[in-house]
Amino acid sequence: MSANEDQEMELEALRSIYEGDDSFRELSPVSFQYRIGENGDPKAFLIEISWTETYPQTPPIISMNAFFNNTISSAVKQSILAKLQEAVEVNLGTAMTYTLFEYAKDNKEQFMENHRPFHSTTSISNMISVETPSTAPSSKKKDKKEQLSKAQKRKLADKTDHKGELPRGWNWVDVVKHLSKTGSKEDE
Predict the structure, then answer these.
(1) pLDDT at residue 55 in the model
(2) Residue 186 confidence (pLDDT)
(3) Are 101 and 47 in contact (CB under 8 A)?
(4) In the predicted structure, residue 72 carries a pLDDT above the cut 60
(5) pTM for this predicted structure
(6) Are the C-beta atoms of 114 and 79 separated by less than 8 Å?
(7) pLDDT of 178 above 60
(8) 3-class DSSP state of 63
(9) Pairing mode, if any, of strands 24-28 and 31-36?
(10) Ranges of H-type helices in 31-174
(11) Hey, which residues does 49 pair with through a beta bridge?
(12) Per the CB 3.0–4.6 Å rule, which of 58, 70, 85, 125 could disulfide with 54?
C-alpha cells in the first residue's frame, strides 16, 4: 500500500473511533489534536500530531506548542515528547496516531509526575509589580496605544491576509446581489 492509501485508511479509522469524543479534534486531514485528561484537570495536556507526506514510513510531527499547554514547563514537555518519540520508533511503518494518543492517555500520570502547575497570571502580576517601581520615577509619560477588544482583533484578522493587507476587491459590489436587490426591469 502507498503512504496515501495508509493515511486515508487511518483517517477513516480515527474519525470512526473518536466520533463524539470532545477530546479529539481534526485540524486537517493530516493534523490532529487530542486532550489527555479532563477540562480543568491541572495535569491535562494537549498533543498535536501532524503526518508527513510519507507517513507512516516516516515519523509524524508531534507537538505540544498549543496554548492549552502554557502551564506546563518546557522540561516536562520535552520529557513527554521524548517518550512519545520512543513509541514512534517502535511503531514506525504502521498507523500509529491512535496508538500514540492511547499511549499518552495510559501513561498520563507517569508523564506528568514532575509537573508543578504554575499559573501565568501570577507570573504576569509578579512582572508587573517588579516593573512598576522602575517606571514610576520617570517623568516622561508614554503614549498608550489604543487597545482593541478580542472581537475587534478577530474581525480585523478575518478581513486581512497574513501581511495585514486587505484582499483585492474587498470593497467591490457583488453585481448579481446588487441587481437582485434593485429589482432590475430587465428581469421581467
Answers:
(1) 85
(2) 54
(3) yes
(4) yes
(5) 0.56
(6) yes
(7) yes
(8) strand
(9) antiparallel
(10) 74-91, 97-106, 108-111, 120-135, 150-159
(11) 32, 62
(12) 58
